[in-house]
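user: At home tonight, take the chain set out below, taking as long as you need, and be ready to discuss the fold:
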Amino acid sequence: MILSVEEIEKRIADSYELPNRVIEEKPHPVVSVRTSTYNHGPYIRQCIEGVLMQRTTFPFEFIIGEDFSTDETRKIVFEYAEKYPDIIRVITADYNVGTKANGRRCIRACRGKYIAICEGDDYWIEPLKLQKQVEFLEKNPEYGLVCTDVNFYYQEQGKFLKAFFKSKKYPIKYTYEDFLVKGWFIAPCTWVYKREFAQSVPDGFIIGDYPLVLEISSCLKIKFLDEVTTVYRVLKSSASHFMNFEKAKKYNEGVFKIQDYYMKKNGNCGLKKRILIRKNLLMIKTAVKYKKYKFVFLYSMRLFHIFIWGRDII
């Protein structure tokens, strides 16, 4: 269900924060760690512990958006909030507000100079993660975001893919143009970025992390630290992993909508042919995966049209 802006705002207004001492004891946190969680019962303890183990020379706050889970997540989060009232701020409501309202209310609560992300099913494994990333950003103001390598954990198979980005055969250049054309994924659970960009992404996109990368990289540099700090848990229900062709098609079209918006916003229309080629190659690959051969033919024809005339059929 797509919610109107008015409905999202109503749900945020209905939300409240559990009693805590964070604002009094840490009036000027350097980092706000943000976690959104819903029905992450088997994983949420690991997520919280990974944040609490951080060793820093600066104060940070930990904001958890608990979205009225129907499993034990809510009970676990509330227990941690009671145990750590000087670091954990829990924002919730007495009903499920949905992903967008939950994320937005957490972002608005952030007070730090920087924001770090760790969703409720992911977890950090490096105690100096925040310290290293903040030190880099403080010394290099021309950078707006620092990310790291990550281990993928495939929950259903019980297997790890270690150092995901190091294992990739293609390099990521970490430039705005590279992100815009190729739509790279750089694991938000590893990020620390400047808070000034937190509310810069317009409404209506299928995902929020990719346009945020484009917002930041169009103004400042992005730094990759070549070490593993985080585990990204791959679940069947993950937003970018699909069980059928129609969902995959909808997601890929949503990504192109983001690319088209930033092409026009930043005057990058000269990159459109490259983006269309990559989009249609991806859709051909997706159609083959799901044995949708009619769409293989359709996207092949569109790709041919782009190569010859420089634009899509539609």
Q: What stands out?
A: The mean pLDDT is 94.
